[in-house]
Amino acid sequence: MELRAIVWGRAATRMALLAVLATVGARAAGAQAIAITARRVFDGAQMLGASTVVVEGGRITSVGALPAGFRGVRYDLGDATLMPGLMDVHSHVVWHFNAQGRFHTASDGETPSQEAIAAAGNAWATLASGVTTIQSPGSPEDKELRDAINRGVIPGPRLLTSLGSLSETSGTPDELRAKVRAFKAGGADLIKLFASKSIREGGAQTMTEAQLQAACSEAHAQGLRVLVHAHASEAMKAAINAGCDQIEHGIFASDEVLQMMVQKGTYLSPQCGLVFRNYLDNRSKYQGIGNYNDAGFTSMEESLPLGIAAVRKAVNTPGLKVVFGTDAVAGAHGRNVDDLICRIDEAGQSPLAALAGATSLAARSMGLADSLGTIAPRMLADLVAVPGDVTRDATALRRVRFVMKGGRVYRNEP
C-alpha cells in the first residue's frame, strides 16, 4: 500500500508538471506565427496532399504552400496526417475513480479539492489525446472546470455542458419548462434528457411525449440544443417527434426510426464499444454501486456486439448524421479515440466519414461549425497530427504526436 502511494504520488506529480509545462509552452508560442507542415491534411471533409497550415493569432490564415518570406515558428511533421482537433460530443469528464480505486460518488467522502484535481487530470488526458472539444451531458461540477479551462488556468479541451439532466421524475410539462429555464440561467450550454432507462436496466422508454415536447420546445425557446438519452425505438421516436436535436446511444434503433432521423435532420451519437469495454475492464471499481450489479454487467457484455451492429446500421443509413460521442466515463478519459477506431475497424465506417463525424459534422451538431471542425482560413486553429496515413491504419489515432488548441501547442513529439 505504501509503495503504491509513492508510485501514485510520483505519477501525479509528473502529470501536474507536464500540465504546467504544456500551459507555459502554449502561452509562449501563442503570440508567434506558426506553420505546420504534414504529408497529408484532412480538412474535415477530404484528404489533401502535402500542405502547410499557417496560424496567426489563434486562427488559421492559409492552407497550402508555405507563404513566401514566412517568419515564425515551423513544425515539419513529416509523414503524418494533420487533422482538425477531434470533438467528442458525449464525455463525462468529471467522472473518476477515487483514492480507494472505486468509482467516485457523492457519498464516498472525497473533498472538493480531490474532485477538482481528478477532473483536471481527465481534462488534460483528453486534450493530450487529440480531443480538443468535448460536450458533457453533464454534471454541475462541469461549470467550474469549463470556466477554468476558458481562463487558461488549466489545460483542457473546450467544454460544453448541460450542468445536469432531466427525466420522467422531473415533473409536469410546466415544471420541466421551468427547470429548462433554470439550467439556462445557471449557464448551461445545452439540455440533457433521459427518455429511457439505462442499458443496464433494459433501455425502455420513460419520459412521456408531453414531457419531451415541453422540454425540447422550451430549450429551443431559450436558444439551447437538446440531447436525449434513448435506447428503445419508442423513446427515440418520441424524442424525434418532439423536435429534439440529438439522440444518444440508440442501440435498439429500428430502420423506421433511423429514417425518421434522416427526414428530421436529427443527429445520432451511438457508441461502438469503448464505454462497454471500459466498464467491463474496470468492473471491480464499479461493482455494487447503484445499478452496476451482476445483471447490469451481464447486460453490458451482451451490448458489446449490439453496439457494433447499431453503429454499422447507422453509418450505412444514407443521409443519417452520425457524430462521434464516446460516453467516456471514469477509466476511459484519454482513450476516447478507441471508439473511433472501433467504428472504422469493427463497424465498417469509412475512415473519412468517421473522421468527419469527429470533426466537421460534430462541430455542426454543437453549433460550432463557424469556428471549429474544419481546416480553413479564419477558423480557430485546433489541429492534431498522428503518424502515417490514418485512413490506412486507424490505430494511428492512439499515437498522437501534435496537439494545438486555439493556436497554442500543447503537445509536440518527434
Question: What does this 3D model show about the protein?
Answer:
The chain is α/β, with parallel strands linked by helices. It folds into two domains: 122 residues, Urease, subunit C, domain 1, CATH 2.30.40; 280 residues, TIM Barrel, CATH 3.20.20. 38% of the residues lie in helices and 19% in strands. It has 13 helices and 18 strands. A six-stranded mixed beta sheet has the order 3-2-7-16-17-18. Strand 4 and strand 5 form a beta hairpin. Helix 6 runs parallel beside helix 7 and helix 8 runs antiparallel to helix 10. The protein is globular, with a radius of gyration of 21 Å. The two termini are 37 Å apart. The N terminus is likely disordered.
Low-confidence stretches: 1-18, 20-29
**Fold-level CATH name of the largest domain:** TIM Barrel
First CA to last CA: what distance?
Answer: 37 Å
Assign the CATH architecture of the largest domain.
Alpha-Beta Barrel
Which strand order spans the largest sheet, edge to edge or round the barrel? 3-2-7-16-17-18
Beta-strand level of the residues, as a percent range? 15-25%
Using only CA atoms, what is the Rg? 21 Å
